[in-house]
Design a protein that fits this description.
The structure is a single chain. This protein is about 35% helix and about 30% strand. The chain has about 210 residues and is an alpha/beta fold. Strands 1, 2, 3, 4, 5, 6, 7, 8 and 9 form a 9-stranded mixed beta sheet that branches. A hairpin with a 6-residue loop joins β4 and β5. The termini are far apart.
């Protein structure tokens, strides 16, 4: 640097400092815009549907899926596990992307649509005329390490309701225990997806068996 330039820098130290600070702010701002947010929370989802579902000839009927009810213990994005009978804990660094009810409802709708039986499979906020309604209650949604091998426990109660009379046509409880191949939250997520797909297939079969 020339002496002239050096002298000018010394004569305005505040301006130089402000320039350095502004440059640093722009640099770090750019990093925050384009760099992934650092977090120690792993977020997982249940998004698996059955590969195959029963196919039926289309029928002029609308099926309304009511908002699922759920055991209050599992009505959370926190990922539940059990290591002792009659106790439930929650992982600190692993959670669901939505509550179990929020994850299962669209999967159930997609599975029932894939049967091609109904003119429409409606979900909330629709509450208009419908031929039948399906009420689902999630009873268990937990990684269970009290058995060997560990299992993901998923239990659903499904009730088919006639639309005009609100009469319960049929009900069934579906209980599944899917093996967890490794004692880890990630392996539990894999088992949860397998259990959900099996439960959706059984629930769909249950509905079609009661249809005309």
């Amino acid at each position: 640097m020339s002496e002239r330039g050096y002298g000018r820098a010394l004569s305005h130290p505040g301006k130089t400092i402000r320039l350095v600070v502004a440059t640093a702010l722009i640099f770090f701002s750019g990093c925050s815009l384009f760099s992934p947010v650092q977090s120690d929370i792993r977020v997982s989802v249940v998004d698996k549907v059955p590969r195959e579902v029963p196919q039926r000839q289309r029928h002029p009927a609308t099926l309304l899926l009511l908002p699922p009810s759920i055991n209050p213990i599992y009505d959370t994005i926190r990922m539940a596990y059990r290591t002792e009978p009659h106790q439930v804990g929650f992982y600190r660094h692993h959670q669901w992307g939505a509550t179990p009810a929020q994850m299962l409802l669209p999967l159930l709708a997609r599975t029932l649509e894939n049967t091609h039986y109904f003119d429409a499979v409606a979900t909330p906020p629709y509450f208009g005329p419908h031929s039948y309604a399906l009420q689902t209650t999630i009873l268990d949604f937990v990684q269970d390490y009290t058995s060997t091998p560990a299992t993901f426990q998923l239990s659903l109660r499904v009730q088919l309701i006639e639309g005009t009379s609100n009469r319960i046509v049929a009900s069934r409880t579906i209980s599944l225990r899917e093996p967890i191949l490794q004692e880890s939250p990630a392996a539990g997520v894999v088992a949860a997806n397998q259990a959900a797909a099996s439960a959706l297939q059984q629930a769909t079969q249950f509905v079609l068996e009661r249809m005309p």
